[in-house]
């Protein structure tokens, strides 16, 4: 049975954790030793090209539907909604991948910070959009919702496919 690079990386991380747990003088150190960097850290962002392609397809679809149902302003709103989600989710993915590569102890605080920042920004955009008279505001909201649902579903599918044993 052939082991792919993701499984090999997971096994390497588990072995490092076992070695760390086996050391008895761990309490004397001010900070734990850094785990070895993976042979190829690009696996953390390997899903981004596929997600970007899906997001681009959703952008085209949302823009078309927005134009057909509400004209140019709805097309701009739907496209802006999808782009806001795509950019914010891509940035949080890159921040989390960077933190995991540089210092895994930073992963949880930075992940929580980026999620709070991302969803706070989405909330501000939606709250501002509701209070305006711009005709594309409904399409903006639908674009944001569609972007969040599609990105989350495709990312979950991707990681399920990658992590599933052959």
Keywords:
single chain, 166 residues, mainly alpha
How is this structure best described in words?
- The protein has 166 residues and is mainly α.
- The protein has five helices and no strands.
- Helix 2 (48-70) packs antiparallel against helix 5 and helix 4 (107-131) runs antiparallel to helix 5.
- It starts with a helix and ends with a helix.
- The mean pLDDT is 83.
User: Class by helix and strand content?
Assistant: mainly alpha
Unreliable residue stretches: none
Q: Provide the helix percentage.
A: over 70%
Note the total helix count: 5
* Sheet of most strands: none
End-to-end separation in angstroms reads: 9 Å
Query: What's the total number of strands?
Result: 0
DSSP strand content: under 5%
User: Tell me, what's the shape?
Assistant: elongated
H/E element order: HHHHH
* Radius of gyration computed on alpha carbons: 21 Å
Mean of the pLDDT scores?
Answer: 83
Quick rundown:
This protein is mainly alpha-helical and 166 residues long.
What are the SSEs and their pairings?
Blueprint (H helix, E strand, L loop, with lengths): L4 H18 L25 H23 L1 H31 L4 H25 L5 H27 L3
